[in-house]
Amino acid sequence: MSKLWAMFFLSILLVSVMNFYAEVREPDRVDIAEIHEHIRESVKVQGVLTSYVRDPYSDGSDRIDLLLEDEYNVVEIRWTETGMRQSGRDDGLPATLPPIGTMVEGVGEVVEWNGKIWIQSQGAGAITYDARWVPDVHLLSLTDLSHSPSTYDGDLITLTGYAGGVIEANITRQTFSLMDSPSYSNADHIISTSMEGRLTESLESGSKIIVTGWLRWDERSFRWQLQTHATQIEVLWAAGAKRLSWSSDAVYWSYDVGALVTLEGTSANLSDGWWVMGPGDAGQNKLCLLPAPGDQDGITQDWTGRLVWEEQKVQLCLDHGYDAEFTNPTGAIGEETVPLGDVVRDPNAYRNQTLNFEGWSTDPISPDYNKGYFADGPDYFTRSTRVRMVLEGARAEWLEADTMVRINATVIWDTADARLILQVHAITLVGPTPNPVTLSWTEGFDDWQWDINKRVKISGIATNGSDGTLWIAREGSAIGERLCLLGDGSELAAQTAAGAQPIDWVGRLTTEENVADREVKLCLDRR
Q1: Residue 213 and residue 6: Cα distance in Å, rounded?
Q2: Distance (Å, rounded) from C-alpha 140 to C-alpha 137?
Q3: How far apart are alpha carbons 302 and 323 in whole angstroms?
């Protein structure tokens, strides 16, 4: 009997030891090239940190996406609950990750979904690195680097220079030039700089900055490139608006598209739109003007705004409505409105209250549907907050995407879905209806599907199929490119009057399903 009891206690001890080992043992370290063999397993990988993006979807989550490179293999690590939230920063996320080019280790579960493989890491200790793995920083000038760039291949370097273009805010990935002169024509040395992460404010061309990054050879473009992160850019002097001269050719103005510019002239509201008129004949010196609310005709002053390319007018325009102080102007426009961001940051303070908001609808909403999203910016790149809204009452017209509206709504907390909802009692259009989205025949279904239910415009020739179906055909296409057309009965007559010339057709992009043939096709609905 004593032997049986001894064997029993020994088995209990062995099971305990095995369970303890399973809990405390470290995951196996694998090469990045072999992670596809360890799906749903916990592994450890080691590689060079090539890029990272904090809060990739701008939803306030404690998440960082990292890319690690091991020779010619790259793996993505999606790191959540990083424990890196701290107070004292606008974004709540300090720059505690090592610089680009540092060797780091990541631990997590290998996930495969929809053909993509990544490592899902969780917790403050999932990403680690040793201080010895951080590369030495070389303080260089652009001249020093140009003499022998291969000497610093793969090293961390710090350069001081001038931004060769506008470095936009709230853009996750972008490329700009770092120059040794604020003027491109006077610069002797220029290096391409690839930046990950988002800046809180745009930096104008000519701003003097210090950039710390990882020097690498860009094999695709056959050039040296500095890879950096937004947290590794220090602004020494921020440039202001660039003054344009009427004596310069418009071709030179095109180099400043996207920049903040100033131009002296007189406003003119003509039959073909607003203009800034310069000296000389009215037809020679003028620039298209996108006016701000309150602009008046016949005002002579310095006009400051973003120089943009207006696709509908097919020309350069001065966007005078651009406000350099606000990326998302919701809450700063109109009276007695509440900024949407305030409600999202402290929902309990506004719960069950009926308030006024001004913002934009993000998607088209049909008359027979009452749900959509309300945002504080007109497009994906400018908005930072988006909330579900439910419309009360009946409507006869579509609410188009990206339309500026004013709503009276009650803030409700949906306990079932654990999210805020705006119960909209009244909605008023504040801004104009957006212009139709122009479809290009060179894009096709993969691009067009993102514009389903939106008002669109496409150029083509209306034809009648053998089965009576109307089509819009691409002019001169030898492969029969065409788009289904749901017309109002006037299309063929209009095409006959136009002859063989293509017509710009405007309507709503919809889908039509043929159950018998198991077919779904895109159509332009003009009814």
Answers
A1: 64
A2: 9
A3: 15
The residue out of 408, 429, 450 marking a domain boundary is 429
Token pair 């590794």 is at which residue?
232
Structural domain count of the chain? 5
User: Does residue 5 lie within any of the structural domains?
Assistant: no
CATH label of the domain that carries residue 515: 2.40.50
Buried/exposed code over 22-33 (b: 16+ C-beta within 10 A; e: otherwise): eeeeeeeebebe
pTM of the model: 0.45
Tokens representing 219?
């094999």
**Helix-strand-coil percent breakdown of the chain, rounded to 5?**
15, 45, 45
Q: Are 457 and 504 in contact (CB under 8 A)?
A: yes
CATH number of the structural domain spanning residue 189: 2.40.50.140
Residue 1 within a domain: no
Q: Could you report the per-residue pLDDT of 115-134, keeping only the tens digit for each? A: 788 899 988 788 888 888 88
Domain-embedded: residue 200? yes
Kindly state whether residues 366 and 299 are assigned to the same domain: no
Query: What pLDDT digit, counting tens, does each position of 163-208 carry?
Result: 888 888 777 778 889 988 777 766 788 999 988 877 878 888 888 8
Residue 331 has pLDDT above 60, yes or no: no
**Any idea which residue has 């996108």 for tokens?**
290
Distance CA 434, CA 403 (A): 6
Give the amino acid at 295.
Answer: D
Same domain, 70 and 152: no
Of the candidates 98, 133, 168, which is a domain's last residue?
A: 133
Residue 353 tokens, joined: 């209250």
| Strands 300-310 and 242-243, bridge-based pairing | unpaired
- Domain match, 206 and 274 both: no
The token pair at 33 is 């090239």
Say how far apart CA 484 and CA 368 lie, in whole Å.
Answer: 23
Label residue 375 exposed, middle or buried (CB < 10 Å: 0-12, 13-18, 19+). buried
Amino acid at 23: E
127 and 53 part of one domain = yes
Give residue 205's domain range.
Answer: 137-237
> Are 233 and 195 contacting, i.e. CB atoms less than 8 angstroms apart?
yes
Q: Is 318 exposed, middle or buried (0-12, 13-18, 19+ CB in 10 A)?
A: buried
Burial 216-233, CB ≥16 within 10 A → b, else e: beeeeeeebbbbbbbbbb
Q: Which amino acid is at 298?
A: G
35 and 117 co-located in one domain = yes
What are the tokens at 132?
A: 């010895």
Q: For residues 110 and 37, what is the distance between their CA atoms, to the nearest angstrom?
A: 9
The kind and range of the H/E element at 350 are helix 347-350
pLDDT tens digits, one per residue of 351-392: 878 888 888 888 888 877 888 889 888 777 777 788 888 887
- Smallest CA-to-CA distance from 411 within 498, 351, 473, 472 is with 351
Q: What is the CA radius of gyration of the chain?
A: 29
Residues 84 and 171 in one domain: no
Same domain as 417, residue 348: yes
Report yes or no on 11 lying in a domain. Answer: no
